């Protein structure tokens, strides 16, 4: 096996940092709570935000500019040795806990309240 293929396989088998994050509008104080099994990738998507699924966040990002937003990791999740572990489910529980605590809805945030 060539070195490149081996490095690629190694990378795919390595757990990336995962957890719950906030995107904070420094001009207004509003936040978006999200979670990801790959926090570096989530941060890169934030930095390169050309379009975001949340229209209000995207509008404010264009209005206030990139310098008025921050990406903050709130909680991290450690990998376990079980290959069948439900990281997505565990992250959703953590995210829901942060949503319950911060209530980032309406004037306070970009998340949509669950009905």
First-last Cα distance: 52 Å
Q: Strand count, sense and closure of the main sheet?
A: 3 strands, antiparallel
Q: Which structural class best describes the helix and strand composition?
A: alpha+beta
Mean pLDDT: 89
Q: Quick one: how many beta strands?
A: 3
Biggest sheet, spatial arrangement of strands = 2-1-3
Notes on the structure:
With 115 residues, the chain is of the alpha+beta class. Helix content is 39%, strand content 20%. It is built from 4 helices and 3 strands, in the order αββααβα. The protein has helices at 3-12, 39-47, 55-64, 87-102; strands spanning 18-25, 31-36, 69-77. Strands 2-1-3 form a 3-stranded antiparallel beta sheet, with helices on both faces. A hairpin with a 5-residue loop joins β1 and β2 (31-36). The chain is flat, with a radius of gyration of 16 Å. It starts with a helix and ends in a 13-residue tail after the last helix. The mean pLDDT is 89.
Fill in the keyword field for this structure.
39% helix, three-stranded antiparallel beta sheet, alpha+beta, 115 residues, 3 strands
Summarize the SSE layout with pairings.
Layout: H1 3-12, E1 18-25, E2 31-36, H2 39-47, H3 55-64, E3 69-77, H4 87-102
Give me a quick take on this structure:
With 115 residues, the protein is α+β, with helices and mostly antiparallel strands. 39% of the residues lie in helices and 20% in strands. The mean pLDDT is 89.
């Amino acid at each position: 096996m060539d070195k490149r293929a081996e490095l690629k396989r190694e990378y795919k088998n390595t757990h990336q940092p995962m957890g719950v994050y906030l995107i904070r509008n420094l001009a207004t104080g509003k936040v978006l709570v999200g979670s990801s099994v790959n926090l570096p990738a989530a941060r890169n998507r934030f930095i390169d935000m050309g379009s975001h699924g949340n229209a209000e966040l995207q509008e404010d990002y264009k209005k206030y500019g990139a310098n008025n937003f921050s990406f903050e990791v709130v909680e991290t999740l450690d990998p376990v040795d079980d290959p069948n572990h439900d990281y997505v489910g565990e992250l959703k529980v953590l995210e829901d806990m942060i949503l319950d605590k911060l209530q980032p809805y309406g004037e306070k945030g970009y998340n949509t309240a669950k009905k």
